[in-house]
Amino acid sequence: MGQKIERDHQRFRKLVRGKVKSNLSKYISRGEMIGKKGKDLVSIPLPQIEIPQFRYGNKNNGGGGQGDGDVGQALGPPQGDGKSGAGDQPGGHIQEVELTMEELASILGEELALPRIEPRGKKNIVTTRDKYTGIRQSGPESLRHFKRTFKRALKRQIAAGLYDPMKPMVIPVREDKQYRSWKEVQKPESVAVIVYMMDVSGSMTDEQKEIVRIEAFWIDTWIKAHYKGIDTVYIIHDAAAQEVDEQTFYHTRESGGTKISAAYELADKIITTRYPPDQWNIYAFHFSDGDNWGDDIPHCIEVLTNKLLPRVNLFGYGQVESPYGSGEFYDYVHEMLGEKKNVVASKIPDREAILGSIKEFLGTGR
Questions:
Q1: Of 45, 131, 177, 343, whose CB neighbour count within 10 A is largest?
Q2: pLDDT per residue rounded down to tens, the chain (366 residues)
């Protein structure tokens, strides 16, 4: 019975996975998953999917219910009578299911055919782990090996003629007890930091910030699937740059001019002081409408080329379309694509373009 339930559960999970995968573009463009994110799980609304239920039946005549039931009757919470208040047709039902972040990353990777990330510098950080490698005769009771201890006690009682099959009682003594032994092993640890930079000048609208928020959620999901530890840094800028928390990053209302080099200089300073490149895998993503103060462009390219790019695994520039910005900075970054393998430039005119942009950013496998 337990195996059948497990098989049914696995089939249901595959059904959910298939539904999410086939509608991934819709979930991404609408951002439905982000507001339903918990610590390790994401709640996903799935219309037209049947949630498994126990049903009353005659098979095996087992169970412990009360009262009479009809064959096929659902033994779960009532689902309503199918009547709608003002209309004459039944309404559709939407159920919410939960997926782990690992499952979500796997679905994203399959749908976009993303290569696995190969971390760099992961051997530079070493942590110590206890690995259980053998058995010894003494140790704390919390490490007692029950099976080995039981077998040793059983053999001793049989050899001494103390074992009675009619009363199969096995009582270990001190000499029977076996304990797990361990040794300390050094294990390379992969750690990474994601630096998000966003233009919050007057030409960036709330809709553009929401596009950035959705894309950052999926970038986080994929990168976190490949590392044990992740730090996240948020930088906002107009003519000046500052480090902020996540809430401020997505909800700040700013105005004024744009000086992109300010964000790049601050990112370089943070990396230098907190995230040495020989120990950290560094991912930097900058989102802007491409409008920049003209005299700042040469300095901006200089900081990017000489300071940031030599240190990061990947630098992604995402340009959201604005009715106010010139959009010319994309051309300057795009010129680097042939020379720098860790540079990706992507245009994101609207929400429908988010999925393609994610593939452009993460398709390098860096």
A1: 343
A2: 556 656 655 666 666 666 776 677 777 777 766 655 665 677 666 554 444 555 555 555 554 555 565 665 555 555 555 454 555 555 444 556 677 778 888 888 888 888 888 777 554 455 555 667 778 888 788 788 888 888 888 888 888 888 888 888 888 888 888 888 877 665 556 688 999 999 988 777 888 888 998 898 888 888 888 887 789 999 999 889 999 998 888 888 766 778 899 999 999 999 999 999 988 999 999 999 888 887 899 999 999 999 999 999 999 999 998 776 678 889 989 888 777 889 999 999 999 999 999 999 998 887
Does residue 348 fall inside a structural domain?
A: yes
Q: Encoding tokens for residue 250?
A: 């997505």
Strand, coil or helix: what is 268?
helix
Q: Which pair of tokens denotes residue 109? A: 């990777």
CB atoms within 10 A of CB 120: 16
Extract the runs of DSSP E, i.e. beta strands, from the chain. Answer: 41-47, 94-100, 126-136, 179-188, 191-199, 229-237, 241-244, 281-288, 314-320, 343-348
Q: Count CB-CB contacts under 10 A for residue 296.
A: 17
Residues 314 and 329 in one domain: yes
Whether 199 is in a domain gets the answer yes
Q: Are the CB atoms for 311 and 276 separated by under 8 Å? A: no
Assigned domain for 81 exists: no
Distance separating alpha carbons of residues 189 and 185, to the nearest angstrom? 12
Query: Which pair of tokens denotes residue 64?
Result: 């412990």
The encoded tokens of residue 280 equal 């950290």
Structural domain range at position 207: 191-362
175 and 261 belong to one structural domain:
no
Question: What's the structural domain count of the chain?
Answer: 3
pTM: 0.66
Token code pair at residue 124: 């530079």
Domain-located, residue 347: yes
